[in-house]
Amino acid sequence: AAWKEFFDVKQQSRGLVLQPVSPLPPTSYPEATSHQWQVWLWGAVIGLMILIGISMVRTAWISDDAMITFRTVMNVTHGYGLTWNIDERVQAYTHPLWMGVLTLGYSLTGDLFTTTIILSMAIALGSVALIPLRLGASFPGILLALTGLLFAKPFIEYSTSGLENSLSYLLLALVAIAAYHQQPGNGKQFG
Questions:
Q1: Residue 122 — pLDDT band, cuts 50, 70, 90?
Q2: For 22-31, 80-89, 111-120, which range has the lowest pLDDT when averaged over its residues?
């Protein structure tokens, strides 16, 4: 049978076991085309990143829940403090880091809606870019992850909702990178 040239058949206590004759690691490619493979794969990664960005632009929106944060951002930048109503000291936001990012962005641009969408997209795309750049996964794994994100409707649509989702994506990506580098053999150890 043709399969015998690719597998060794070994008798073990649990029955017959097929083992590959010469397993290739997931990142090895034929020597003659190694550079070509990497060019094509990086092209696919960049293409998927562009498609994710286009999908975010096409579905960009601001949720009504983000308006709560927007009012607080406007109050603080106009000198009324971190409040919902000017004369009441009530904290109306639940995400101080995201509110701080929006406050800084709004104080620099003066346009809260456009600034929010641009910041959300930039942070979400930065989070996605960390997958191929910082995680030492194989190219097929990277392509699978990016393709999954491209077709993940909640990821695409809530990346620009004005809520803290994109910042959460970034923090999760940083935690994943830190956890990956904590494993023995995966790079520098923390601590």
A1: very high
A2: 22-31
pLDDT at 14 over 60: no
Q: How far is CA 17 from the centre of its chain?
A: 39
CA dihedral 8, 12, 14, 17 (to 10 degrees): 0
Q: What are phi and psi of 121, to 5 degrees?
A: -65, -45
Locus of tokens 């699978």:
144
Whether 152 and 101 have beta carbons less than 8 Å apart is answered as no
The neighbouring-strand residues paired with 67 are none
Phi and psi based region of residue 17 (left: phi greater than 0; alpha: psi -120 to 50; beta: remaining): beta
Map residue 83 onto helix, strand or coil.
coil
**Which stretch of DSSP H or E encloses residue 44?**
helix 34-58
Task: Measure the CA–CA gap between 10 and 19, rounded to whole angstroms.
Answer: 8
pLDDT at residue number 8:
53
pTM of the model: 0.75
CA distance 80 to 87: 9
